[in-house]
Amino acid sequence: EALLQLATLDHIDDFYFLPHIPFQWLYSISAEGAKDKDQLRESEHEMVQHVLNLEMIARMACSLSVESYHNKVVRFAIANIANLVRQVVFATRSLANQPKSELIKQNMDVYKKAWSKELNNLVEAVDEITPVNEYLYISISHAKENVELIAQILDAEFSYQMRIMVLKRIGQILTKLLML
Questions:
Q1: CA distance 86 to 79
Q2: How far apart (Å, rounded) are the C-alpha atoms in residues 95 and 91?
Q3: What region does 17 belong to: left with phi over 0, alpha with psi -120 to 50, or beta?
């Protein structure tokens, strides 16, 4: 049972590290227009797969808690994300077909804010049911991997916004660790 709990926390730790990347990738490809339809389809698939992974990890997190209220909050948050992902995919398709349309850009900004809000709600809900001591053990064991990944991301040709998002998430994680 202890090994299962550690494996579950390992997945949760992976979930916490840069959960916004699939959305940013899909958004950036769409904003460039429908130049490469295969790449757009691939990023859409990655986005949907990401949500399926989030659902799996949310269920795993719920298995660690006997708090029915907190489990309901996690399930509600993941249901909102699952409903939103289809809308996001359709909005990005519209953006890809008409990347210069101000109305579509504004619409996409609304979805971007909604996605970020719902994802943050899920992160906070999972925080409530995750045992801190075990999570810290797993998090520390992943620190080296995460630092290497950060270095790769920052060296790669990502947008300025994505770099800011990565650094902001790292700051949030470090703030939580320091508060313990």
A1: 12
A2: 6
A3: beta
Mean pLDDT per 10-residue section of the chain, whose length is 180 residues: 55 61 86 84 90 85 82 94 95 93 94 91 81 58 63 63 66 58
Q: What is the pLDDT of residue 120?
A: 84
How is residue 9 written in tokens?
């926390």
Q: Confirm if 93 and 31 have CB atoms less than 8 A apart.
A: no
What pTM value is reported for the model? Answer: 0.68
Q: Model confidence over 1-28: pLDDT tens digits?
A: 555 555 555 556 556 556 677 888 888 8
Find, among 176, 178, 155, the residue nearest to 166 by Cα.
155
The answer to whether residues 140 and 22 touch, using CB atoms and an 8 Å cutoff, is no
